[in-house]
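Here is one chain, start to finish.
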Amino acid sequence: MKRLLFIIPALLIILAAGINHFSCSKDKQGFLLGNSGESPIRKEIESTRADEIQSAFRKIFKMYEDSVVYITTEQTVQIRHPFFDDPILREFFGRDRREPQTQKRTGLGTGFIISEDGYICTNHHVISGVDKVNVTVKDKIYEARVIGSDERTDIGLLKIDSKEKLNPVYFGDSDIVQVGDWAIAIGNPFGLDKTFTVGVISAIGRRDVDFMGGSHIQTDASINPGNSGGPLINIYGEVIGINRMIYSKSGGYMGIGFAIPINTAKSVLVQLQKYQQVKRGYLGVSILPISENDAKQIGLEKNEGAFVAEVVEKSPAADAGVRVGDVIVRINNNNIKDTKDLLNVIGETKAGETITLTIWRNRQLITLKAKIKERPAR
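Its structure:
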């Protein structure tokens, strides 16, 4: 059976039971993302001959061997054995066996340093719900603080306190990545730290690999459980993505891995550092996809758009006059082909911004204005 597997909790062990070229970005508050200046090997690599690629790979590993970090997590869980509810078994094994047993679970993953003062990028699913996060840098173990984490984009931000300046990665531009480009992954698959693998970019703009429709870079560089949160790097030594998940029948590497584009991650990381969460736009509708048959019945030429199944009271959609049964086909200049398009466009719209909704209603197009609010906390 084909499965999409998130790379960590990779190696879940039960104890006791077994974000143009982007070299550095600084927001108005002074939060530094990435190393300063241009990658020191970019110009050299641009003039490299094919027989010198091996030397380029070695330089990239040397440049980043202390920038890619090893992450371990701990979580205390309660395990309750249902068969002890049986009165006969309970009597045989003892009544106390009905009580939940406490166990520790450990997980591992990868991260990479994005500022000299100890901010580290990883995946949300690496650090979600855990009690403790340890980060190993230069063979020294630090207890990390979770600054913020975003489930939708699967991005997490950690902070460690180090007495020495750390070596942040250089950020590339994921918008100019092309199929066939070199792709390099560094991470900790199966707990094997600082593992370096090489491949190419297999596809870009993959939006059908998660339910939110976020864009992904596909690569055949070998990534496995434990690589989650590690960097995907171009031949210039610049991070272009965050390794996230693999496509597998067996649970192991099958040549198809997916990474979050670094241009997506940059704005998320800045928000996590400022607010400990990501602030997103909110329209206030429940939406459904449109089938080909549905489109014919309501007079649409194509089965594209987002069908409005519910309008939340006192929401931006309600104030704008959106009705149940409307089909949202465009927002400003963005065509809405499906529900994922609508979620992405609204999510990236800032609170207070007014948008133009183009809606199919009663076999004709109408336009409405909606003032977006901030998405309420869950």
